[in-house]
């Protein structure tokens, strides 16, 4: 059964409930502690040892109510196309600076990590952004290299489209012996030397599928990423692009589970 807004409001309806959740989550074995009135910490009944459950989390030293933080995390978990800082600003009535910080701290939870990909893995690249008219001073396209396991997760990285960087990305994220499927870009021919099986389709000859060899799964992810960034964020700077790429890779990789629960476990 899906985790709905009714479930969320029942579980995280107050500051105390949010703080108690963090205490239980971070210190499940802690016994004999009580909440210190007026403070976001707990003290042991006999030893007086204190525990600060927000230390080292995205909430650390934040004056924003925990109820706002948790609801923002919930909004990110159910928004297929992302949540802009302006939307958070309107929703919570906070300043844009606060909304921007909340959004970027939540994206920190969506880092592009996880077990290595295996099985059938598609490899491809895309470009984000474009050029302004007028030549000089225009904003150039930014390359993104990606890997997707069919039925599994995505690993995508903002990176130059150079052979050693693409192969390093593959080594770091794909199990040896995996079958890697790509187009005819020459760098992927070196996959066999790294211990991977390799299959390719020739897009130049309008060959897009040959048996189980294609890159359609990754093409679908690129399309979703671009539509969402254009529709929700409009423009993303190169400086922060990796965070947004990680956000949508995280959503894709966790599409079969509760994204809200997955985010809470990373706090």
List the helices and strands and how they pair.
Elements: H1 5-11, H2 15-26, E1 33-35, E2 42-44, E3 50-51, H3 66-78, H4 85-92, H5 96-108, E4 120-128, E5 142-149, E6 154-158, H6 163-173, E7 179-182, E8 197-200, H7 216-233, H8 238-253, H9 259-264
Parallel strand pairs: 4-7, 7-8
Antiparallel strand pairs: 1-2, 2-3, 4-5, 5-6
CATH fold-type name of the largest domain: Nucleotidyltransferase, domain 5
Query: How many separate structural domains?
Result: 2
Please state the average pLDDT score. 92
Identify the overall geometry.
Answer: elongated
Helical residues, percent? 25-40%
Low-confidence stretches: 132-138
Helix and strand pattern: HHEEEHHHEEEHEEHHH
Total count of strands? 8
Beta-strand residue fraction:
5-15%
At CATH level 2, the architecture of the largest domain is 2-Layer Sandwich
State the name of the first-level CATH class of the largest domain: Alpha Beta
- Using only C-alpha atoms, the radius of gyration works out to 22 Å
> How does the major sheet shape up?
5 strands, mixed
Q: Please state the structural category.
A: alpha/beta
Task: Tell me the span between the first and last alpha carbons.
Answer: 23 Å
Describe this protein's structure:
This protein has a 5-stranded mixed beta sheet, with helices on both faces. The longest helix has 18 residues, at 216-233. It folds into 2 domains: 5-108, no CATH class; 120-238, Nucleotidyltransferase, domain 5 (2-Layer Sandwich). It is an alpha/beta fold and 267 residues long. The protein has 9 helices and 8 strands. The protein has helices spanning 5-11, 15-26, 66-78, 85-92, 96-108, 163-173, 216-233, 238-253, 259-264; strands at residues 33-35, 42-44, 50-51, 120-128, 142-149, 154-158, 179-182, 197-200.
């Amino acid at each position: 059964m899906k985790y709905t807004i009714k479930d969320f409001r029942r579980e995280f309806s107050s500051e105390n409930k949010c703080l108690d959740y963090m205490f239980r989550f971070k210190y499940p074995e802690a016994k004999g502690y009580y909440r210190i009135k007026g403070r976001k910490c707990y003290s042991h009944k006999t030893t007086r040892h204190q525990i600060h459950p927000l230390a080292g989390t995205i909430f650390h030293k934040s004056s924003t109510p925990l109820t706002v933080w948790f609801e923002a995390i919930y909004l990110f978990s159910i928004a297929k196309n992302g949540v802009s800082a302006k939307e958070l600003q309107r929703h919570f009535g906070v300043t844009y600076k606060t909304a921007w910080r909340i959004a970027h701290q939540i994206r920190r939870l969506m880092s592009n990590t996880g077990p290595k990909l295996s099985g059938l893995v598609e490899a491809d690249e895309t470009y984000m952004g474009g050029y302004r008219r007028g030549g000089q001073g225009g904003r150039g396209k930014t390359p993104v290299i990606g890997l997707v396991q069919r039925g599994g997760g995505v690993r995508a990285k903002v990176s130059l489209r150079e052979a050693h960087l693409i192969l390093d990305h593959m080594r770091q994220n794909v199990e040896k012996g995996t079958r890697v499927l790509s187009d005819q870009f020459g760098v992927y021919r070196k996959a066999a030397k790294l211990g991977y099986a390799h299959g390719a389709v020739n897009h130049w000859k309008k060959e897009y599928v040959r048996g189980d060899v294609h890159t359609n799964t990754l093409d679908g992810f690129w399309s979703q990423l671009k539509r969402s960034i254009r529709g929700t964020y409009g423009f993303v700077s190169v400086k922060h692009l990796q965070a947004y790429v990680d956000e949508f890779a995280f959503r894709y990789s966790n599409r079969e589970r509760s994204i809200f629960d997955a985010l809470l476990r990373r706090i």
